[in-house]
Design brief:
By secondary structure, this protein is an alpha/beta fold. The protein is built from 13 helices and 9 strands. The N and C termini lie far apart (about 80 Å). It binds (2S)-2-hydroxybutanedioic acid (LMR). (2S)-2-hydroxybutanedioic acid (LMR) binds next to loops.
Length: about 350
């Protein structure tokens, strides 16, 4: 090959590589082709999340990465970035859309701005138990919700559990709805959660997860709601005096990818990811409750005063939350609220 031919060849190779990278849609570490995956090639997939490694989501992400490595015999590598190291809370969806990360697992509350119907999972006392959550996720409601994600160029792969949220405050014990009056609570950016505190006469302030400890410590807010695992591993209990184990709300995640990125992955790669996700989902369903119980025990060893809500107290909170359902039916989705109420009725003794 002459010098001129070599230069032309390099130029064409560069243009072809750039075109393939653009087609992959996501700055993936390799250009992909639907059919082939060369035996020497390695695929690196970045998975970003905002919580600590020892929480249900942190452990699930790590487990998923190990399964992918085993199933692909080391040819696929999932790099997990916990604690918002790669994309902070509130930036994750944009980072996925821009192709800066390949997988994220935001809570349903974080989807609220773009896909308000997902707030159905934020409704207080909507799900009597985990089985009811799974029925909703896997039934027509869940299927419809997953389809809404396509509008944002996203693809929902599975849902992972964290568990049930508990209330904490530094001001006073939270026993009756009246105890909330005048207090300020940190919430995820979900309108339903804002309405939930409004219904109790409190004020809600949307604050990113990674800024919540500071907001509690400096008394920017009096309290917050979260699962024991998130409370414990972010040390929220160390800057709060009172906790009520109310199990009033569910916290779960949607594992999301960029649709274009996914469609450009070879079929065998998609299959490995799908299998590893299914196995991880089964694991997290089985273990998230146990992990939260373990972390509740850890919390109870600290200075915080922990109250377990009685049935009567639950009824009073539930009645006070009624305007939240009206808000959801009016502003978000009347059809889904019907289905949720039906589910609730079926479960009631
Ligand atoms: C929160 O912001 O409280 C949670 O969504 C964090 C998480 O991802 O569990």
């Amino acid at each position: 090959m002459s010098g001129g031919q070599k230069r032309r060849f390099r130029f064409v190779a560069l243009v072809v590589s750039l075109a393939l990278l653009a087609l992959s849609g996501c700055g993936s570490q390799r250009a992909v082709d639907h059919e082939q995956w060369g035996s020497e090639e390695k695929i690196v997939i970045t998975f970003s999340h905002v919580v600590a490694e020892n929480t249900p989501k942190g452990l699930a992400a790590r487990r998923f990465a190990n399964l992918v490595r085993e199933k692909s015999k080391g040819r696929m590598l999932v790099e997990v970035f916990p604690n918002g190291q790669l994309a902070g809370d509130g930036e994750e969806i944009q980072a996925l859309q821009d192709g800066r990360v390949h997988l994220i697992a935001p809570s349903t509350g974080k989807l609220a701005a773009l896909f308000p119907a997902w707030q159905v999972f934020d409704l207080p006392y909507a799900f009597p138990d985990q089985e009811a959550v799974v029925t909703t996720m896997e039934g027509p409601i869940g299927q419809k919700l997953f389809r809404t994600l396509q509008r944002g160029g996203l693809r929902g792969l599975v849902m992972w559990d964290n568990g049930w949220k508990q209330m904490t405050s530094s001001r006073r014990p939270l026993i009756t709805p009246e105890d909330f009056v005048g207090q300020r609570f940190r919430v995820q950016p979900s309108r339903v959660l804002v309405e939930q505190f409004k219904a109790l006469g409190a004020t809600a302030v949307a604050i990113p997860f990674d800024q919540t400890f500071r907001a509690l410590e400096t008394r920017q807010v009096d309290g917050q709601e979260n699962t024991p695992s998130n409370i414990y591993w972010k040390k929220f209990h160390e800057v709060q005096w009172y906790m009520t184990v109310s199990n009033h709300g569910y916290l779960g995640y949607v594992v999301l990818t960029n649709n274009l990125y996914w469609e450009n992955l070879p079929k065998d790669v998609q299959l490995i990811l799908t299998e590893a996700l299914a196995e991880t989902t089964a694991w997290v369903r089985e273990n998230a409750g146990r992990l939260n119980e373990r972390d509740l025990d850890h919390i109870r060893m600290g200075r915080i005063e922990v109250h377990f809500q009685t049935e009567q107290e639950r009824k009073a909170w539930k009645a006070a939350f009624s305007p939240v359902y009206d808000y959801f039916a009016r502003e978000v989705d009347a059809e889904r609220i019907q289905a949720i109420r039906e589910l609730e009725r079926k479960q009631e003794p």
